[in-house]
Amino acid sequence: MKDMLGREDVKTAETALKLLIDNLPLKTLKEKNLKIEDSLNAISSKDIFSSEDLPAFKRSTVDGYAVKAEDTFGATETMPVYLNLEKEIFMGQMADFSLSEDGAAKIPTGGMLPDVADASVMFEHVQIIDDKMIEVFKPVAPAENVIQKGEDVKKGEIIIRRGRRIRPQDIGACAGVGVTEITVYEKPKVSVISTGDEIVSPEKSLSIGEVRDINSYMLTGMIEESGGIPLIKGIFKDDYEIIRDVMETSLKDSDLIIISGGTSVGTKDIIAKIIDDFGSPGVLFHGLSLKPGKPMIGGMINGVPVFGLPGHPAAVSICFEIFILPILNILSGLNEKFPQYSRRIVKAKLSKNISSTQGREEHIRVILEEKEDGLWAEPVLGKSGLITTLVKADGTIVVPLNVYGIEKGTIVDVRLF
């Protein structure tokens, strides 16, 4: 199939991504050790086991009195149960005694229950008679208001599996069982190459026909947010030898290469030729049934994925999410169950009709607005070359491949930026 620009074999996004994944070589990912406080968003490279029970003792979840549950059975407000007040338990101290029959011990939240005690009565359900006796107005069941030894984590249990992205709660779990250092995969390095005779750095004053480099800076943020390390190579003229040289250099220090610009069929668009000239498999696809992002290139050079992105910022954002992010996840060692849902998705009603060209997957930027009847998605109209359409938008919705459009009022999934 040809597209409007005469390119053969224009592929769907799904087919193109499968081509990339199928051509990724199997590699042994590099590992390193990190202190847990430095491990946020890193990917664990080994299963992490607990060497102890958590908690290490049964403890109260309320401020109250440690009791034997059976001693409270039958207690009511009109017919309370009387218990003998014994020792007081303090935080951080061992309860090295046993309760006597009809005994109770004052205990704080988190305090250790003494032997025999199997429940805690809340202060609210107790009346103090004197310093030796209390009356209980409400019974408790065995294990009520108590966390048992090992109930949170048992010794030998896996607390973090290999391939998990480390979250704040994972760090807390490691600290709770005494794990202070973990082994993680090294972050993949991503070269960012900006091309175009008209592209200049942001600090430069513009001459007629020049535009500042937006994409390198946007890609840097997306790479870091996705767990990669960006290597900004600079801005290069549309010259075969210059671009080939910087790509050859990048292959030595990068796990993935992104080239912004030079992907359509203009006279200076030479990225596809350079990728092919490095050898097989070279370019895996050039041209997609996707808007924005139709002229995107995906290829492989010496086992390194190479992406040629269109110059428009909106297309860069969409292509990164659909293609580069899944490949980065693989190169990072990520092994989550549902990586496609790692981005937050909210449901909203579409505020106006959207038309689309059948046979092309279209990603529409939207602004979310909360109204009395719920959340609404307002399409952001504008060409993909406008950076402000991305700045204004809260996320995107997808018009599927073989759909002509979506009607106003339809519930849509909004993928938040």
Protein described:
This protein is α/β, with parallel strands linked by helices and 417 residues long. It contains 7 helices and 28 strands. The chain has 4 domains: 13-29 and 187-340, MoaB/Mog-like domain (Molybdenum Cofactor Biosythetic Enzyme, Chain A, 3-Layer(aba) Sandwich); 32-51 and 155-185, Alpha-Beta Complex (Molybdopterin biosynthesis moea protein, domain 2); 59-147, Molybdopterin biosynthesis moea protein, domain 3 (Molybdopterin biosynthesis moeA protein, domain 3); 343-416, Beta Barrel (Beta-clip). Helix content is 18%, strand content 31%. The strands form 8 sheets. It has a 6-stranded mixed beta sheet, with no helix packed on it. β20 and β21 (304-309) form a beta hairpin. α3 (215-225) runs parallel beside α6.
Structural class: alpha/beta
Helical segment count? 7
Tell me the distance between the termini: 33 Å
Fill in the CATH topology of the largest domain: Molybdenum Cofactor Biosythetic Enzyme, Chain A
- Spatial shape: elongated
The counted number of beta strands is 28
The CATH homologous superfamily of the largest domain is termed MoaB/Mog-like domain
Cα radius of gyration in angstroms: 31 Å
Poorly predicted runs are 1-7
Summarize the amount of helix as a percent range. Answer: 10-25%
**Portion in strands:** 25-35%
Our count of domains comes out at 4
Question: What about the largest sheet?
Answer: 6 strands, mixed
User: Main sheet: which strands, in order across?
Assistant: 7-4-6-5-9-8
Second rung of CATH, namely the architecture of the largest domain:
3-Layer(aba) Sandwich
